[in-house]
Amino acid sequence: MLRRAGISTATLYRGFDSKEGLVAAALERRQRAWIEVRDAAIARSRTDEERVLAVFDALDEFRARPTGSRWCAFLGAAAEYADAPPEIAAAVQADTDAFRTRLSALVAPLVDDPDALADQLLLVITGDLAMRLRRPTHPTSTARAIASALLAQASR
Predict the structure, then answer these.
(1) Which PROSITE patterns is this protein grouped with (predicted)?
(2) Which of 2, 48, 54, 97 is deepest in the core (most CB within 10 A)?
């Protein structure tokens, strides 16, 4: 990263209070990029169910980007620190909360208990992201099928 940016370690850290501050800033940037891809996929959808399932299309789109990665930067940061520093813990929690809130809003027109379904979908998505460590090229089709079944089961 330093070589690509053409800067020294000291220059890189000058803008941050600590290595953890740099990681937190990178996570926040990553979250903004993810939200852009996710919301674009949702906007292309026509029905409420398609909007929910578009999240899985967005996961594949995000992974395929030049800046994509094998798995989730937030899961990686959470796994890296047994007791995460406050700035990293806050970034991970903010991403989790924002994603859960977005999922709940997406499923609200379809189910009586959107928060419960959002929790289930978040678990499916997190599991899918974690599976990328075992099978990096595996598409999200299995997670999408589980989400579709959960939607069908919970629908009004």
Answers:
(1) HTH_TETR_2
(2) 54
